[in-house]
Amino acid sequence: MRWIVLVLLFFGMIINFADKSIIGLAAVPIMEEFKLSYAEWGLVGSSYYWLYPVTGIFGAAWADRIGAKKVLGFLMLTWAVLQFGVLAITALPLLVLYRILLGAFEGPFSPVAYSHAHKWFPPKLRGFANSVVVSGATVGAMIVAPLLVALISILGWKAAFACLGAASIVWAMAFQFMTKESPAEVYDKAKKKKQEKLEKINIKEFLRVLGSPSALFTTLAYFSTYFLVVWLAVWLPIYLVEVVNMSPAQMGYGVAVIGIASTFIYIGVSALSDYLFKKNQNWRLSRVYVVASSMVIGALFLASIIVFQHPVWVVIAMCFAKGLTYAILPIGPTIMINELPERGGLMTSILTSSGNIAGIVAPLVTGFIVGLSGADKVFGYNLSILFMAALVLVFSILFSIFVKPDTSKREENEHESRLLQSSN
């Protein structure tokens, strides 16, 4: 059952990020249809994240209370309604409203999915499990890009969006009929106890945990990487066409290659982290140092495309930049949940929603920089890339210095692991 859950969460994340990224893949026809400037397009990209951080926190807390299965099914059905609603969009205000609502209802999915996977897998496999969930994001945002580009060119951008709505309905039905809320033995024995913990949470203790160096600098590292996540979704397609001079078809395949290669890279980093954790139970070595080192190297690869802008090198460098910096995405939730296990969904939502504040800033900053550069678009894009590389570099170093996960919870996690193994 745990593998069925993981596979469905993987496909759910594909839909989630396909919903996010298709707007970038359809950027050219949308901008032409509504006669949008770069600044207005930055507004469209940013609007998705205006409510995303807030609803992510409340949605994950709601899932902690009533169950992830119900919440995830509800979210998917709302996505379907909104994607079919695209057929009625006729002007920029409606496009912005659609993106705001879509972001609001997609905000809780990632933290709830991470927390749900956390319940089904023991500590020694959680890095891998989360990396599989994260890989769904890469597949949805990049690997399926050629398919989405083909749908846009054949059916038009509105009909392509509606196809994603249909996929959401299929997923919601499959998740409801093919999965359970949690491993039977763990759920039956711990359900009442967990509900009591949720009712008696100590607010001061919760705020203390959020303000701890481990939670704070994990969140900041996630924030810096998510700046790149948003840039890849909103601006990479345009960058490859306008700066690297790829055709739309070449752009689609380039995005897919970056997605495939980077997926193997960050899954490999997560597997290495799990291996080291299983071997020595050292959080600093297996989780913190592995992730921080990967992010530093990824930032250097990202910065390199400013100097070498040959299409082949840009694709290679972006593969490593994305794959290595994304290491924080599967491991970060593991660190946050470790700080307050009984509030896994809420802790993960704090991480993802705080990181997603970058989603509000990134499209606007990039659009502003590119717009200021005037005719010299290459300079504007290069400046935005340099900014992202510096951001990742600084926060990954701070992450390596200050994040020291609470190892006192090791016995609790090991006991939970034995329960999970016995129930599966």
TrEMBL record:
TM annotation in the entry: 48-64, 71-90, 127-153, 159-179, 215-241, 253-276, 288-308, 314-336, 357-375, 381-403
Q: Which UniProt keywords apply?
A: Membrane, Transmembrane, Transmembrane helix, Transport
Which Pfam families does this one have? MFS_1
Choose one Gene Ontology CC annotation of this protein and give it: plasma membrane
* Membrane-protein topology: Multi-pass membrane protein
Localization in the cell: Cell membrane
Which Gene3D superfamilies does the record associate with it? MFS general substrate transporter like domains
One GO MF annotation is:
transmembrane transporter activity
- Domain Major facilitator superfamily (MFS) profile: where? 5-408
Q: Does the keyword Glycoprotein apply?
A: no
Read off the InterPro entries from this record.
Answer: MFS, MFS_dom, MFS_Na/Anion_cotransporter, MFS_trans_sf
Question: Do you know which PROSITE patterns this protein is assigned to?
Answer: MFS
Q: Name the chain's protein.
A: MFS transporter
- Organism of this sequence: Bacillus aerolatus
